[in-house]
């Protein structure tokens, strides 16, 4: 029933899915898992503590809520497809998220998400309240060496060595994967910040381009007005030159008329 709704192996296996697969296996959501997932799931609380420890790089005992949201994105727990298929559960993972999360809140959020999908609830009471203290007492790389009792057979010693080796491998695998997830969260945040800065630069460039286009339009309008005024001035000058020529022509005719009048006056005096 569960596999038809949500499948942690719906995509090709990646290291970012190890935690998802371990949680799914722990809560009985997927049994067809590989050996490393089974090993990781045997120390799930310690696995989560390792991841929290690497996210809490300052050692303050808390991580930003934004980092938790980014981790969910890295793990594929907030994909668009899943949100569309089951928006209530996807929203519940990060709803009412505090600005900062302690390990207990971090643990409860992730485990609660998978336990809800499995149809069960997390245990309540003193055990869950003190889970952080209990986990902190266990070192991730601590070897659980058990002294073989005197007289045990060689097979028991070999089994103990194998168990110890598995514990060491599990601790190393958890620590390595936790570090990898923390780095991916940091890389995701860096990309997001870079994208925001790039979008800001693009907006500024777009605004500058619009301002330049407005300035260009204004210059074109002013240029057109100047051309119009120059054309009007040219027409005025041409008209003025025409009038000057007319006046010159009239002035020339007036001088000829004066000469003719003088000739007539001379003739008139002669006949008198």
TrEMBL record:
<dbReference type="InterPro" id="IPR031601">
    <property type="entry name" value="CCD48"/>
</dbReference>
<protein>
    <submittedName>
        <fullName>EF-hand and coiled-coil domain containing 1</fullName>
    </submittedName>
</protein>
<feature type="domain" description="EF-hand">
    <location>
        <begin position="43"/>
        <end position="78"/>
    </location>
</feature>
<dbReference type="InterPro" id="IPR002048">
    <property type="entry name" value="EF_hand_dom"/>
</dbReference>
<dbReference type="GO" id="GO:0005509">
    <property type="term" value="F:calcium ion binding"/>
</dbReference>
<keyword id="KW-0175">Coiled coil</keyword>
<dbReference type="InterPro" id="IPR011992">
    <property type="entry name" value="EF-hand-dom_pair"/>
</dbReference>
<feature type="coiled-coil region">
    <location>
        <begin position="145"/>
        <end position="236"/>
    </location>
</feature>
<dbReference type="Pfam" id="PF15799">
    <property type="entry name" value="CCD48"/>
</dbReference>
